[in-house]
């Protein structure tokens, strides 16, 4: 088989490839299927100007067009992460050929087929499958055509017209494809701009709504601040007026006055018992003194609560809960 003579070359050329075994297997299959191709190791120049030494398959592939067979010159560069990423495929016209620009091949000879755009989703994708796709596509529309010999003497108008037509068609087709690509790019840019405009309009509407809410909250805050300041002014005025706190509440009836006085004594008794407990805890008084004082205060507190209950009954008020 043809590929056997390239075994040593392939082993050396794929040293820097991550999946060298897979590459050697695919390349051997291609070399055995297409005798017009040969492996080479050369520098590939990327779009950013950087270079990398890559393995490529260069030569011709057989294409049938309108019943005749043609050998189309091509070159397939295998990236370092092949087969995860597709090869870079090019048509390489000989000096007596010109590239026929189309959707499948640009003016630089770069091949653009569906298999290259869906490579990662296709488990059957390989360099051999790519070559098969090229043969099928080129069989419908050849990527190159022959240049008329420069030394051929054009003696008739029909010959001149034929040559001019071929060149004009090629040039017009190239310009058409370039213009079409530019129009497609403009359509995409226009779509992006319209989408951005819609998004900006939506954000602007949201900001306007937030601004309205903010203005409303600002008005509410201003109103509350005014009320707060007025309350502070009123309290400050009362503080400076010299009002006696005991004179603020004025019971209307004698029974209410009795309830108020009894309630004050009841609350005072609670406070006294609390502070006596604190004094006992800290050792300021002994237990005997504590118990004596608590008994005295409790008797007074009991009488205060009795007075409160009796006065409330006489006034027809609800009884205080015992809980």
UniProtKB/TrEMBL annotation:
<feature type="domain" description="SB">
    <location>
        <begin position="253"/>
        <end position="321"/>
    </location>
</feature>
<dbReference type="InterPro" id="IPR037202">
    <property type="entry name" value="ESCRT_assembly_dom"/>
</dbReference>
<dbReference type="InterPro" id="IPR016135">
    <property type="entry name" value="UBQ-conjugating_enzyme/RWD"/>
</dbReference>
<dbReference type="GO" id="GO:0000813">
    <property type="term" value="C:ESCRT I complex"/>
</dbReference>
<keyword id="KW-0175">Coiled coil</keyword>
<dbReference type="Pfam" id="PF05743">
    <property type="entry name" value="UEV"/>
</dbReference>
<dbReference type="GO" id="GO:0008333">
    <property type="term" value="P:endosome to lysosome transport"/>
</dbReference>
<dbReference type="InterPro" id="IPR008883">
    <property type="entry name" value="UEV_N"/>
</dbReference>
<dbReference type="Pfam" id="PF09454">
    <property type="entry name" value="Vps23_core"/>
</dbReference>
<feature type="domain" description="UEV">
    <location>
        <begin position="4"/>
        <end position="148"/>
    </location>
</feature>
<comment type="similarity">
    <text>Belongs to the ubiquitin-conjugating enzyme family. UEV subfamily.</text>
</comment>
<dbReference type="InterPro" id="IPR017916">
    <property type="entry name" value="SB_dom"/>
</dbReference>
<dbReference type="InterPro" id="IPR052070">
    <property type="entry name" value="ESCRT-I_UEV_domain"/>
</dbReference>
<dbReference type="GO" id="GO:0015031">
    <property type="term" value="P:protein transport"/>
</dbReference>
<dbReference type="GO" id="GO:0043130">
    <property type="term" value="F:ubiquitin binding"/>
</dbReference>
<keyword id="KW-0653">Protein transport</keyword>
<protein>
    <submittedName>
        <fullName>Tumor susceptibility gene 101 proteinlike [Oryzias latipes]</fullName>
    </submittedName>
</protein>
<keyword id="KW-0967">Endosome</keyword>
<keyword id="KW-0813">Transport</keyword>
